[in-house]
Specification:
The protein is of the alpha/beta class. It has 2 domains: about 200 residues, 2-enoyl-CoA Hydratase, Chain A, domain 1, CATH 3.90.226; about 45 residues, Lyase 2-enoyl-coa Hydratase, Chain  A, domain 2 (Orthogonal Bundle), CATH 1.10.12. It has 12 helices and 10 strands. β2, α1 and β3 form a beta-alpha-beta unit.
């Protein structure tokens, strides 16, 4: 895994096993809420990981057991809004350089949200933007922005009705209620709920199964599944997906059948 060319202040970026990177939100003093400088740092890390061929999948979590991510740092937001125009302009200029995870609709690599505590507002939006979610049994999820005069504009108002039945989505959107991890599992937002002490093991089980597969196959599968959602079925079936073309031109597409014929485990290269 390639090292970052900067020292992160708000996150820990590390290789937790070969081919697997983890991004840990490291702002426990604000329940891992995200301010504008943190958004910029996170965006840079995501760009770096996407371009690193040694990273096949990523885990996103928060430090501690209290919070995965409490969403936007409202103290920072309040401070900026009460600042002079120059400070507000500087904050806007920095935010203009950011592509947040919640708006990366075509991120190429699998993302696993390891929800270690509350996931509120933007934190819930991050979890919904990931491909898989493993949650500790004490975790809570909610789009609580209306309680602060805001709205879930980071994708929450759009993703939640696409991931659970409409009436239930509107109930959570219009009341700003939170849901338990078990309820999120029942609704299909979460893949697995375990005690906090078993969170790593549950995440590892998913990682193990993903790493058994060819990484370019996984990227092609993800791209086709996600892009195809916006197309009629017939169009999605015949659409030329770039990740599929890359897969079909790779060495790994030959390695799989060859390993099967030779009765051995495949040696994936990601190329």
């Amino acid at each position: 895994m390639q090292a970052l060319d900067f020292e992160p202040q708000y996150f820990v970026y590390e290789e937790i096993r070969p081919r697997v990177a983890r991004i840990t939100i490291n702002r426990p003093e604000v329940r891992n809420a995200i301010n504008t400088p943190a958004h910029k740092e996170w965006s840079d890390i995501l760009d770096h990981a996407a371009a690193d061929d040694d990273v096949w999948l990523m885990v996103i979590t928060g430090v501690g057991r209290q919070a995965f991510c409490a969403g936007r740092d409202l103290k920072h937001l309040s401070m900026i809004r009460q600042s002079d125009e120059a400070a507000q302009a500087a904050d806007r200029e920095l935010m203009d350089q950011v592509t947040r995870l919640i708006e990366r609709f075509d991120y190429p690599k699998p993302l696993i949200a390891q929800v270690n505590g509350v996931a509120l507002g933007g934190g819930f939006e991050v979890a919904m933007a990931c491909d898989l979610v493993v949650a500790a049994d004490h975790a809570q999820f909610g789009l609580t922005e209306p309680l602060r005069g805001l709205y879930a504009g980071g994708g929450g108002v759009h993703r939640l009705p696409r991931q659970i039945p409409m009436k239930l989505a509107m109930e959570y959107l219009l009341t700003a209620r939170t849901m338990s991890a078990q309820r999120a599992l029942e609704l299909g937002i979460v893949n697995d709920v375990v005690p906090y002490d078993e969170l790593e093991a549950a995440t590892d089980r998913l990682i193990d199964d993903i790493l058994r597969c060819a990484p370019l196959s996984i990227q092609a599968t993800k791209q086709a599944a996600m892009r195809g959602l916006d197309m009629p079925l017939g169009e999605a079936f015949h659409h030329p997906y770039p990740a599929v073309a890359r897969l079909m031109a790779s060495e790994d597409v030959k390695e799989g059948p060859r390993a099967f014929a030779e009765k051995r485990e495949p040696n994936w290269q990601g190329r």
